[in-house]
Amino acid sequence: MGLFGTGLRRICAVVAASTADEMSKMVRSALRQTRTVELRLDWLSSDAERTRFLAWLGKGQSRNATFLATCRRREGGGKFAGAVHRELYWLIRAREAGCQWCDLEVETLRKLPGQSVREYPVPPRVLLSLHDFERTPDLPRSMNPPAHGGVDAVKIAAEARSIQDSVRLLRLARSSKSFVGVPMGEAGLPARILALREGSALAYAPVAEATAPGQVSLDEMMHLYRAHTLTRRTRVYGIIGDPVGHSLSPLLHNTGFVARHLDAVYLPFLVHDLRDFLAAVPEFGVRGFSVTHPHKQGILKYLKECDPLAAEIGAVNTVVVRRNGSLFGCNTDYLGVLRALDKKLRIKGSRVLILGAGGAARAAAFALMRSGAAVAICARREKAARELARAFGGEVVPRAALRTQSFDAILNATPVGMHPHDGVSPLAPGELHCRLVMDMINRPQRTQLLKIASRKGIATIPGVEMLLAQGFAQWEIWTEKPAPEAPMRRAVLGALRAEESRRQAKPRRRR
Fold first, then answer.
1. Is 206 helix (H, G, I), strand (E, B) or coil?
2. How many domains does the structure of the chain reveal?
3. Longest dimension (CA), the chain
4. For 457, how many CA atoms within 13 A lie in the half-sphere containing its CB?
5. How far is CA 28 from CA 13, 55, 62, 93, 346, in A?
C-alpha cells in the first residue's frame, strides 16, 4: 500500500475558494468521489475565513478521509501574503482541525532553523513541494525524501513545455514510492492522467472545472479518464494536434471503452513537434492515435505503411501502432463525409460543391469523387482550389458564379462560422442554390450557415454527424469490435448541448 492508500485514495481533490462556505461545499463535494483532499488555505481571502473554515473542518469532517493542508506563500507560487511564521501558524491550526498531512514548499523549508520542520507541531506527515511554473528543471535519476528535512515525501510540479518534459517527470515517479509528480501545462496533461500508473503517490484534480491549461477536473479524472484504474496493461490511445484542448474525441472514445468494458484510455496530446510525440509513443505505450490539424500531412513521412486511399488523399487522420512499433496510417474523414451525406443524398450522379481547399476539403473531394459524384471546388485561394481540383479531376467554381449555379449539395470545409465567431456564415443566402447543406464545423451544432439554409427550406447536416461517423470508424479500427454508437453519440451531443447552454447563459458585455 502506498503513502495515501490505493485506488481512489490516490486521487487528491484540490479545494480552493475565497470563502469558508465555498470551501466547505467543495470539501463535501470532493468526499463524494475521493477520500484524499488538498485544502488550499492560501486561497481563503482572510485570516477570519481561514479560522471559520478550520473550525468547520474540526467538527468531525476528517473521519475516514485524508486532508492535506497547504498555505502556500507567494514566493512558492501561492496566494498567501504572510511570512513563514504565519504560514506555519496556519499549518499548526490545520493539524488541530484534523489534517494528517501538510504541503510545505521548499522555499519555506530553506528558511527554517536547520532546514527541518520537525521543531514545529504541523500535521504529522509532511510533503515537501517544489513548483517551477516556467519549465521542467534538470531532474536527478531518483528521488527520495531528504532525511534531514524531516519530510515524508517529495512533490515536483513543473511546467512541461514538451511531451518529453512530462516523460522525464514520470520516469522520476517510477524511482520512489514517496514521490509525487505533477506535470503542469497542456503538454503535460496526458502524463498527469497517467501519473498514478507510473508510480506517483498522488494525482491532483480540482473539484471545480479546470482553471488552467493541463488541469483535469476531478469529475473528468475519475469518470472520463478513470486515472485510478489505469495500469501498465491499459491500452493507450489519443489525439495529436495543435490546438487540441477543444477536442470531443476523448469523450467519444472513452465513452466507447467504458460501454464495452475495455481496459483502454484515450488522451489529448498537444503536439507542437511530431518527433517530440513519437519519441514518447513507446514510453506511454500508445497503441493508436487520431491526427488533427496541423499534422495530417506531416505524419505521412513517419509511417511504415499507409492505406492507398489515405496516400491518394495525401492526409492521414488515424494511425495504428503495430506490435513492432511501426506506424500504419489511414483516413476515416472520408468515411465520415460519406456516412453523414448518405442518409440524405443519393451521392452517385449528384453535383456537390465543396467550399475550401484544405485537408478536410481534400478528404471530402476524394470520397465523393470515388462514390460517383461530380465535385466542384470553391476556395478563397484560387491556386489551392485549382491544385485540389486537378488532383481528383474536378472543376473549380469561382465565388461570383455561386449566385447563378445550382448543386445537389454544398459542403463547408472552412473554419468560417466556428465558435467563437459563430455569427458569421461563409456563404450568403443568395449563394445557396441546392437541396442540402452540410457544415463540417461541429461547434456550434447549428452554425449560421445551417440557420440560413434552414430558413430557405434547404435540408441540413451538422458537422457533428461527420465527427461521429469518422470516430466510430477509428474506434473499430483500433479495437476490432463494433463501436457502441448509441452511448458515444449521446455523450457527444450532450456535451455540445451543455456547452451551448453555458454560452447562452453568459451575460453579454455592453459595447
1. strand
2. 2
3. 85
4. 0
5. 11, 15, 11, 20, 56
Sign (positive/negative) of CA torsion 376, 378, 379, 383? Answer: positive
Same domain assignment for residues 219 and 348: no
User: Final residue of a domain: which of 171, 199, 226?
Assistant: 226
Q: Which residue of the set 177, 296, 481, 506 is catalytic?
A: 296
For 347, phi then psi, to 5°, come to: -70, -45
Q: Which helix (H) or strand (E) element contains residue 389? A: helix 382-392
Q: Do 222 and 345 fall into the same domain?
A: no
Give the mean pLDDT of the chain: 93
Are 149 and 26 within one domain? yes
The cell numbers describing 160, all together, are 512541461
> Environment class of residue 100 by beta-carbon count within 10 Å: exposed (0-12), middle (13-18) or buried (19+)?
middle
Report yes or no on 280 lying in a domain. no
- d(CA 163, CA 268) in angstroms, rounded, equals 11
Residues 202 and 348 in one domain: no
How many other CB atoms sit within 10 Å of the CB of residue 304?
11
State residue 492's pLDDT score: 97
Provide the pLDDT confidence category of residue 389 given band limits of 50, 70 and 90: very high
Residue 443: give its domain's CATH number: 3.40.50.720
DSSP classification of residue 99: -
- What does the DSSP assignment read for 316-340? --EEEE-TTS-EEEE--HHHHHHHH
The answer to whether residues 211 and 63 belong to one domain is yes
pTM: 0.92
What's the DSSP call for residue 473? H
The DSSP code for 457 is: T
Domain of 451?
Answer: 341-467
Cβ atoms within 10 Å, residue 79: 16
Asked if 354 and 375 count as a contact pair (C-beta separation under 8 A), the reply is yes
Q: Are 351 and 449 in contact (CB under 8 A)?
A: no
Q: What is the DSSP letter of 66?
A: E
Q: Give the per-residue pLDDT at 147.
A: 58
* Cα gap 403→420, rounded to integer Å: 28
Domain-terminating residue out of 190, 209, 226? 226
Q: What's the whole-number mean pLDDT along residues 398-426?
A: 94
Question: What would the grid cell of residue 23 be?
Answer: 470551501
Q: Distance between CA atoms of 258 and 256, rounded to whole angstroms?
A: 5
My answer on whether 204 and 348 are in the same domain is: no
Whether residue 145 is contained in a domain is answered as yes
Q: What is the CA radius of gyration of the chain?
A: 26
> Look-up: residue for cell 528543471?
137
Within its chain, how far is the Cα of 208 from the centroid?
A: 16
| Cell (9 digits) for 17 | 475558494
Looking at the DSSP bridge assignments, the partners of residue 286 are 236
C-alpha–C-alpha distance, residues 128 and 149, integer Å: 9
Quick one: pLDDT at residue 510?
45
242 domain residue, yes or no: no
Do residue 62 and residue 197 come from a single domain?
yes
In a domain, 192, yes or no: yes
| 177 is known as an active-site residue | no
